[in-house]
Amino acid sequence: ALLTDHTRLTKKSYDFIVVGGGTAGSVLANRLTEQPEVNVLVVEAGRSNIDGPDLDDIQVPYFVADIPASFDWNYTTVPQRALQNRTLAYPRGHVLGGSSSTNFMFYTRGSSDEFDRLARISGDEGWSWKAMLPYILKSETLTPPADDHNTTGQVDPAVHGKTGPVLTSLPGNASVLDSRVLQTTSELSEFPFNLDMNSGNPLGVGWLQSTIGHGVRSSAATAFLAQETINRKNLDVLIGTRVTRLLQTERKDGKPVFLGVELAQCDSGTKVQIRAKKEVILSAGSIGTPHILMLSGIGGEKELTRLGITTVVDAPDVGKHMQDHPWVPLQWQVNTTNTLETINRNPDIFNAAMAVYNATKQGVISNNPGGNQIGWFRLPPNSSVLSEFGDTTAGPLSPHFELTFGNSFLSFTEPVPATGNFMSMCVALVAPTSRGSVQLATTSVFDAPLIDPAFMQTPSDLATLTEAVKAAHRFAAASAWKDFIVTPFVEAVNTTTDVDIHAYITNLVTTFRHPMGTARMSTSEFGSGVVNSNLLVNGASGLRIVDASIFPHIFGAHLQAPVYAIAERASDLIKKEHGVPLLS
Ligand SMILES: Cc1cc2nc3c(=O)[nH]c(=O)nc-3n(C[C@H](O)[C@H](O)[C@H](O)COP(=O)(O)OP(=O)(O)OC[C@H]3O[C@@H](n4cnc5c(N)ncnc54)[C@H](O)[C@@H]3O)c2cc1C
Q: Which residues participate directly in catalysis (predicted)?
């Protein structure tokens, strides 16, 4: 059942309590309750994804860039030292489905190298690409694009799922950029075409796959917590409620056992305690998970003592080593009116597009406004950045940077100009070495923690993103764009020398919203982390973490697909450990 009040909970204790009904938490809720004898409580801080007058804002693909504050945690980072002390908005989904309900819907799995590195450094072959592919496929179904066009040559159906709950699709609305992007891939050998970036080899330019099905966003909530799942008698989903801390229920074999949670709906609200019989599973995301751990006495002793919290498990890696993808926008004014600005500035055109969408779930409103193609690239083998700093990626199939191609003025740091039509590239650093943190500001879960992605703090990050900006300029200099680009947008004009580019980066870098690593796995590379390779918290019993916080290295990918994959495998690990039969 979907509940808004703890007094309606159907049980006093549950086999499993899942903290956070987000991307990973929704998968666990669904998979664990496939067996009727297993009961599960999900506690989600945010709102429902199916109630409210404003649901279009998270369901309609075109609205993705403008998610209202009521669906978000509305975090802000601490001043970013390498970015002239700018603070950055730091969105996270505050709704069932978590960030998968509010993200840009890019569906990218990362490279086989990245999964294989995880297997190698964790000593668990189960995380390898080969072992994870069945889980990746299990979560996904590739669906036809909204306009039902023939997708031959745009995707490899053989590497996609056919029965999974998350729906993916190719762009369903042609863009004025499409032919030019493709022409550039044949014109410039450094930007080759890749039929399917989700095959394990993402390198090159390909058609964007989005978590859109039948013209509507497909989130962890629509996919894994649909009505028939919520209606299961063995599943309670309590929304609008935060887990304030984990409860130590006993000590066993010298370890604290955390088979309970404390809940509240507001800081001054009644605190309620609920017990788990088998496990508490933290899926509160890369910010929420370390926040809750530290408030429960699981963290670095020094930091906990600073706030007067008694250390129960000394785990210095909690909240540390956070990575995220920084990016800068580049825009060019173009000589067509056939860009999204025309729709956005003219209510008649916008309303006509909405009417088409409402009647058919087709047209521009059904499409990801982020663009129709994206690309992943390595620095050239003879790059001086590589010889100076070494390779920061997982291997030869893993990218250093990403370019996305959009037919509008894309930026989170600059206002959209009132006139003119634009194309944009988002230039992202996808194998960064800077590492930040999540730290406690107070002892209440209702106060935001201090979030520091520490963007651009290493020389190699600055050098690599600089090379990526130069690559974007080379892409735009291909003859395919000659009659199309009028001039670079004024801000981007002065990006010719390295010094110019450094200043541009410092002024404009922001987040791709991919924090991870704040409760990372123990590995041969980094030593003892927060969880072991089965995702159980080291030094504790009854407690597991399943979300983006467990990754020791950031993927060269937008993170939702890797999170779906680890949550699918974790569901099986949990079932096996507790003798719950796996569905064939
Ligand atoms: C705006 C935005 C755009 C993005 N774009 C893309 C994209 O295009 N493609 C892509 O692949 N990835 C994208 N990402 C990243 C991707 O969505 C996330 O990496 C992924 O969804 C994280 O999954 P998770 O399970 O770790 O956390 P989440 O999905 O964030 O889930 C955590 C859940 O825990 C809940 N929670 C937190 N604290 C508590 C508490 N104390 N008590 C109860 N509940 C709590 C939260 O409300 C949330 O529902 C984007 C993210 C954002 C925010």
A: 514, 558
Longest Cα–Cα distance of the chain, Å, equals: 72
Q: Where are the alpha helices (DSSP H) in 405-497?
A: 459-476, 490-493
Model confidence over 348-363: pLDDT tens digits? 999 999 999 999 999 9
Q: Ligand 1 centroid to 287 CA: how many Å? A: 9
State percent of the chain over pLDDT 90. 96
Q: What is the pLDDT of residue 491?
A: 76
pLDDT at residue 124 tops 80: yes
Residue carrying the six token digits 């993103």: 465
Strand partners, 262: 245, 273
When the pLDDT of each residue in the chain is averaged and rounded to a whole number, the result is: 97
6 tagged catalytic = no
pLDDT at 583: 81
- Give ranges for CATH 3.30.560.10 in the chain: 145-216+326-429+457-508
Q: Is 558 a catalytic residue?
A: yes
Contact between 78 and 451 under an 8 Å Cβ cutoff? The reply is yes
Percent of the chain whose pLDDT exceeds 70: 100
Residues of the chain with CATH 3.50.50.60: 1-105+218-318+515-579
95 is annotated as contributing to ligand binding = yes
Q: What is the CATH code for 145-216+326-429+457-508? A: 3.30.560.10
Write down the H helix ranges in 404-533: 459-476, 490-493, 498-508
Give the position, in ligand 1's atom list, of the atom nearest the Cα of 244: 41
| DSSP result, 539-558 | T-BSEEE-SGGG-SS--SS-
Backbone dihedral region for residue 445 (phi beyond 0: left; psi -120 to 50: alpha; all else: beta) = alpha
Pocket test for ligand 1, best of 76, 95, 282, 559 (most atoms within 8 A of CB): 559
Q: For position 584, what pLDDT does the model report?
A: 67
The per-residue pLDDT for range 91-109, each reduced to its tens digit, is 999 999 999 999 999 999 9
Q: How far apart are CA 294 and CA 332, in angstroms?
A: 46
Per-residue confidence (pLDDT) for residue 494, from 0 to 100: 79
Mean pLDDT over 438-462 rounds to 98
Which of 94, 291, 514, 553 is an active site residue? Answer: 514
- CATH fold of 1-105+218-318+515-579 reads FAD/NAD(P)-binding domain (3.50.50)
Smallest CA-to-CA distance from 545 within 211, 194, 142, 246 is with 246
Helices (H) and strands (E) in the chain, counts: 16, 27
Quote the distance between the C-alpha of residue 451 and its chain's center: 16
